[in-house]
Amino acid sequence: MGDITLRRARPEDGPALSALAWRSKASNGYEDAFMAQCRAELTVVPDDAPGRSTWIAEDGAGRALGFFDLIVENGSAEVEGLFVEPGIQRSGLGRRLWIKLEAEAIAQGAVDVSADADPKAVPFYCAMGLAPIGTRPSGSIPGRRLPRLRKAFRP
User: Fold this and answer.
1) C-alpha dihedral over 108, 112, 117, 121, to 10 degrees?
2) Exposure string for 69-84, b = 16+ CB within 10 A, e = fewer
3) What is the pLDDT along the chain (155 residues), one digit of tens a residue?
4) What's the pLDDT at 154?
5) Most buried of 4, 36, 39, 44, CB within 10 angstroms?
6) Cβ of 55: how many Cβ atoms within 10 Å?
7) Cα–Cα distance, 125 to 133 (Å, whole number)
């Protein structure tokens, strides 16, 4: 995979991360109308708010190849997004981002992590140790429900 570095995202990274999230989601075969409804949720605005962590995986040229966005509140972590550039999905970069995500969550005092997942991302989250616990309404598509997954961290 070459030389990949992880770093905290900065506010100016938002447009590049939003574009990456869009490409990654679209790679699941969704139609343009569906994608248009997801635009707000796929807009990434990194900030330094307490409990929030956004990390980027970059190549040697500084190009974002993947990222995660995490919020920790009251001892629980919530995955706001985890995306990998379509051309390198299944390369191990998602797992590398996940390892960093878990470390960040634990460092901030989380005892568990949850995600509302795109149905096509459920196998990835299950491979990372999360288990389905139900569904939740989509924040983008009225009437659509998304799989909800959770993983408890060992003490």
Assistant:
1) 90
2) bbbbeeeebbbbbbbb
3) 569 999 999 999 999 999 999 999 999 999 999 999 999 999 999 987 889 999 999 999 999 999 999 999 999 999 999 999 999 999 999 999 999 999 999 999 999 999 999 999 999 999 999 999 999 999 999 999 999 999 999 86
4) 81
5) 44
6) 20
7) 12
75 three-state secondary structure = coil
Contact 113, 150 (CB under 8 A): yes
Instruction: In whole angstroms, give the CA distance from residue 45 to residue 13.
Output: 8
Contacts 24+ apart (CB under 8 A), 144-149: 146/116, 146/117, 146/118, 146/119, 147/116, 147/117, 147/119, 147/122, 148/114, 148/115, 148/116, 148/117, 149/114, 149/115, 149/117, 149/122, 149/125
**What tokens appear for 114 in the block?**
């949850």
Q: Which has the closest alpha carbon to 129: 146, 106, 148, 152?
A: 152
Residue with tokens 């992880």: 6
User: What is the model's pLDDT at position 48?
Assistant: 79
